[in-house]
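@channel sequence for tomorrow's demo:
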Amino acid sequence: ADPRVHLLGFVSALRSLYKASALLVLPSHREGFGNVLLEAAAMALPVIASDIDGCRDAVAHGITGTLVPLGDVEALVAAADSYLCDPARAVAHGEAGRRRALAEFDPERVWRGIAMVYERGLN
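structure tokens (generated this afternoon):
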């Protein structure tokens, strides 16, 4: 076992984990929507995720994070290395992610958008 890896099990208070992290990696094969990516972005963390539906909605590639081809371990490692070796880029992507998460995914804004879709469907 690698001493740098900590298996925590279920954790309900994620804020402290985000604060202790340098980045968030989500090498998912399927996502309905990447809420964890938005949570990390709101905490100003750069994110790396698979280039799949759901993740594409939550990550602005090259601006708030990096999307890597599904199953491409080498690309994922390279993306992580690029953030760890370039802290200024990591900070810039993290800050851009926070701005985007707060501006575009504010719950009130999302709920208004959903309500508008339903209203259009009723008319």
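heads up for whoever presents: Helices lie at 15-19, 35-42, 55-58, 73-85, 87-104, 107-122.
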